[in-house]
Amino acid sequence: MAGTRTFTMIKPEAVAAGHAGKIIDMLISNGFRIVALKYTRLSHKEAGTFYEVHKERPFYGELVDYMASGPIYAAILEKENAMEDFRKLIGATDPANAAEGTIRKNFAESKAKNAVHGSDSDENAALEGAFFFSSREQF
Ligand code: GDP
User: How many CB atoms lie within 10 A of CB 32?
Assistant: First the structure.
């Protein structure tokens, strides 16, 4: 059965550009309930740990530098079929390929600086949510 929770981050360039409020509004108006929300900044070490699954990919170093480059918003979201529906709402990794009306189409700068993170499985959503939030920060 598909899970009801997923995890997202609004990435540094989207926060710096002032898009966070519009992105949060978009996810709420698309039926996602906020379970947990935090404005924070990853240290370089924390970003490396968070993205450890991508360690072998050629862009790992750039990704870690970028994600530690400024503050982000982290959130756990709830909706039926949350992970898949949120991946649809954010759109393709590269905004050039993202569908009209998606968050990345509207706000992403490039394939690397693509405005938002969305978990790619229910299992990763649970792990990523637990990376940022204790149970008493989830409502
Ligand atoms: P996602 O699941 O759609 O976020 O995409 P991936 O799992 O393939 O990649 C994870 C993240 O790495 C992306 O969201 C981008 O921020 C970044 N990324 C992907 N491809 C590239 C690339 O070619 N170069 C760089 N610098 N970053 C990339």
Answer: 22
What are the catalytic residues?
A: 117
Q: Whose CA is nearest to atom 1 of ligand 1?
A: 93
Going by alpha carbons, the residue nearest to atom 28 of ligand 1 is: 112
Q: Which atom of ligand 1 is nearest to the CA of 117?
A: 4
Tokens coding 34: 């906020």
93 alpha carbon – ligand 1 mean position (Å): 6
Q: Is the CB of 62 under 6 A from ligand 1?
A: yes
Residue 86: which CATH number?
3.30.70.141
Tens digit of each residue's pLDDT, the chain (139 residues): 788 999 999 999 999 999 999 999 999 999 999 999 999 999 999 999 999 999 999 999 999 999 999 999 999 999 999 999 999 999 999 999 999 999 999 999 999 999 999 999 999 999 999 999 999 999 9
In total, how many domains does the chain have? 1
Task: Compute the distance between CA of residue 32 and CA of residue 67 in angstroms, rounded to an integer.
Answer: 24
Query: Could you list the residue range(s) of the whole structural domain that residue 46 is in?
Result: 4-137
Contacts of 20 (CB under 8 A, 6+ apart): 10, 14, 73
